[in-house]
């Protein structure tokens, strides 16, 4: 058996996800509060409240989508299963822009808080050099990689900053808050125009990019159903308390200070305390904490960019060279290098408002697509097992319509429209970025002779070294919950890893099909024992398949009336290049079984499910011969005797793709 190639680790849990999401939100508070207050004046709190409502919609939408298909990629994965590969790329390319800007924003904003220690830090060449050094530092950390300990340490630092921000809220509400700002904001800070409010709203959305970064780790986390529900509660509570609390305090303080504290707004809030024993220590604590949080958020953004770029490369949405992995660290050095160079270039304008608006441009597109994808998945995959299902659903056109997802789409659409109308420079940069990306995608796919709407994958090993294209880039394997599963997965694993060629591999998609009788509704409740059996079988299949070098195994549970039809449908929907099944009573032909799709095939003793898949599949079908012992027909036909060794016979026709 071959030793597995280095791969992205799967050891993260709730603390890492909390740290990533909260780190982005905390960082955005440090820079976006001033940008919003400059425009919204006394209604700053109302703009942040609208952003908080959108956040409350986005979190459960992302959690349901990411838990439904637990693969690396975040918005790209959700959009892929909800729509197709082109929409998946659009979502990924938009959030990629978001990550690039966030790296630059965090590096740039750090200099404004460093200016508390020395004024030259936040202006001129020194500002650019410090920002560039921060970008290069986080890029180096991303290339070196890191296990769960790094993310757990970051979560501790983020938790410490959360305590500081809550303290600022408590002190600010007690000593600085003006209640009139809620009922008569014009008396406190003047009334903003409708255009200024529209201008300000998208700027608060930058805070929520951490949701995609954390959902992009869905295939790497260890967290159960109860953990998902707790994580949602913690996310909302930890995010909205300082998020809205600081907005209330800032509405009472910042508008009167003019533009002095626009780029370091929390220093402006601290400076408003009349008590020197509160003001002076608090300013330095805020400055230090801001630097720590900006570094943490920049690392998380670079992590999100690297994982997203890797996912785009593996799925042949961008050239594989961009997703090339470090030979020993197994980190996507191509994407990280591209991100670092681009982020440094973005530091040149030294315009925080411009950067925040571009980041919001990418975020609003991604959030809109994710919301639409989750809605469509409710109708496209109504019976799929959902580890988390968001509340507030209504029956609509034969399915369950998630109202939170509808709210996510509507508010994200409003924010996107506001960007197009009010943010001229960001609008053109965003449009050029999206047009360039879509052109790259279409040109790459068409030049490779690949369908622009279907999924096409390459193995991880193809990104670590120069490799020839494998014959089977993706393989579908239905598992049965019997000892025969190991043989099927081993056959698929050998094909995927190309045992005689270390430079190749593929993705195996293992599925379990529940055959639901016509007497029951298709979405009828599956007995817990059967569901447990299915999950155990898929877990075992994943372990067996991933023993082979460069092989990644994704798992899913499917409901259908007939197993054969379900297998054919899933193979077509997922765009796999082969299906591996078990055959009963195989016939030796040249040392193996070769099915040519001739009429005589129906005279052989393959089972009903196997026969259906062979005749109907639009991709190649590979059969593994069972051992000389009693075994089951795929999906439940009576046991039969098998005369030759397990896995010895297998073959495909080179004549027709469906045979």
Automatic annotation (TrEMBL):
InterPro entries: AA/rel_permease1, APC_superfamily, Rossmann-like_a/b/a_fold, UspA. It holds the Pfam family AA_permease_2. It comes from the Bacteria. It is found in: Cell membrane. Its main location: membrane. Keywords: Cell membrane, Membrane, Transmembrane, Transmembrane helix. Residues 473-623 form the UspA domain. The chain crosses the membrane at residues 12-31, 43-65, 86-110, 116-143, 155-177, 197-219, 231-254, 284-310, 330-348, 354-377, 398-419, 425-444. GO terms for cellular component: plasma membrane. GO terms for molecular function: transmembrane transporter activity. It is a multi-pass membrane protein. PANTHER family: AMINO ACID TRANSPORTER-RELATED, INNER MEMBRANE TRANSPORT PROTEIN YBAT. This is Amino acid permease. It comes from Solirubrobacter phytolaccae. The lineage of its organism: Bacteria, Bacillati, Actinomycetota, Thermoleophilia, Solirubrobacterales.
